[in-house]
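We were asked to recover a plausible sequence for a given structure. The inputs and outputs are reproduced exactly as logged, with field labels preserved.

PROBLEM: sequence recovery
POSITIONS: 392
GIVEN STRUCTURE:
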């Protein structure tokens, strides 16, 4: 019997054909491929993907090589940025500004001045007679100058730092106010280590005698310059104070008196002077004069407004700045704490500078503290050795 709708109800016997959405399937596959490619590019780090590649065979491996098979290529600093020496002669901008010691030091004689120092650190004293090449007559006495050959007072009168421990942290100490009290001056010269730098006030009595005593004992010297504080004249540093109201002529007149009070010093340091050191024009006039005379400038760090570091950098003035005042509270425990803080600063930045006054308690504490300094992994150096330290 032939099939009919009764033997195959509802069309169950008919063959069915599937109509697949081929367009949608193709679009889906394309989307998957594009997405996979984007994920691969984003996740897999191959910055050279798609570029031509080449494989190069290595002819030898590093097996069996010793340290002698490798060398270090010297990297020379750029010499493009040219500047000037402290004496105004041509030089490199990044050239060190610290002391340039003469290769063959001469000895001191009684017949007249000789140009160089007698001793290296720890061996003996320093020259105590002014070098004739480094002085010129002034209206109030001899003034420091750069020699015709380019030697500076900083070069000749500096104390060479010991080279025994070149890689250890270093500390420079300046004790100021010498010459005002005969007792304190003598105690500082005789009791403090030779690497402690001594700062002399310009008003002291017998300054030349004390200078010779200090130099014979090996101390490097600074001359303290009175400068205008913010509360001047209620707070007066003393006669011939450098004021911000001075023009160039007036400043040079007062400076010529101050600089002629002493000889054989490597540089100057401010005494007070918060207002003066915060005034660009006045401080620039001073540092120009100091630089031309071959001296260094030390900021005692007492004023946070001081612009000395920036101006000195621009003028290429040999410069150093104190990190802290050791005896701002003149008690043994406080001084000891400040010295420990100074040690920490030296270990952190390589070189640290502290300033203090010639008080009996300060001299006592510094003398005791310095005795085992090297055993604690630190070295005491003169202030001139801190000139070329890395900026803080």
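RECOVERED SEQUENCE:
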């Amino acid at each position: 019997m032939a099939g009919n709708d009764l033997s195959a109800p509802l069309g169950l016997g008919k063959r069915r054909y599937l109509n697949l959405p081929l367009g949608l399937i193709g679009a889906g596959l394309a989307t998957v491929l594009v997405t996979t490619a984007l994920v691969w590019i984003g996740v897999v780090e191959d910055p050279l993907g798609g570029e031509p590649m080449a494989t190069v065979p290595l002819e030898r491996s590093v097996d069996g090589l010793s340290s002698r098979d490798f060398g270090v290529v010297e990297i020379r600093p750029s010499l493009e940025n040219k500047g000037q020496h402290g004496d105004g002669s041509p030089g490199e901008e990044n050239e060190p500004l610290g002391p340039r010691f003469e290769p063959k030091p001469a000895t001191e004689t009684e017949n007249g001045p000789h140009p160089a120092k007698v001793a290296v650190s720890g061996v003996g004293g320093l020259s105590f007679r002014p070098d004739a090449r480094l002085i010129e007559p002034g209206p109030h006495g001899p003034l420091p100058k750069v020699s015709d050959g380019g030697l500076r007072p900083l070069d000749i009168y500096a104390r060479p730092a010991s080279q025994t421990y070149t890689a250890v942290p270093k500390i420079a100490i300046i004790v100021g106010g010498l010459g005002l009290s005969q007792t304190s001056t003598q105690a500082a010269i005789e009791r403090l280590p030779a690497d402690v730098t001594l700062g002399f006030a310009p008003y002291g009595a017998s300054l030349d005698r004390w200078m010779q005593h200090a130099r014979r004992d090996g101390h490097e010297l600074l001359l303290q310059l009175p400068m205008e504080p913010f509360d001047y004249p209620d707070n007066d540093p003393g006669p011939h104070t450098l004021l911000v109201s001075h023009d160039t002529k007036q400043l040079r007149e007062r400076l010529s008196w101050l600089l002629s009070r002493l000889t054989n010093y490597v540089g100057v340091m401010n005494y007070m002077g918060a207002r003066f050191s915060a005034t660009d024009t006045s401080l620039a006039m001073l540092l120009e004069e100091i630089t031309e005379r071959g001296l260094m400038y030390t900021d005692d760090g007492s004023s946070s407004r001081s612009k000395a570091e920036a101006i000195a950098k621009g003028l290429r003035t040999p410069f150093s700045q104190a990190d802290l005042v050791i005896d701002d509270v003149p008690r043994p425990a406080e001084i000891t704490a400040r010295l420990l803080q100074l040690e920490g600063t030296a270990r952190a930045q390589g070189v640290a500078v502290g300033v203090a006054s010639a008080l009996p308690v300060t001299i006592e504490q510094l003398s005791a503290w310095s005795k085992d300094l090297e055993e604690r992994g630190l070295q005491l150096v003169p202030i001139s050795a801190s000139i070329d330290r890395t900026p803080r």
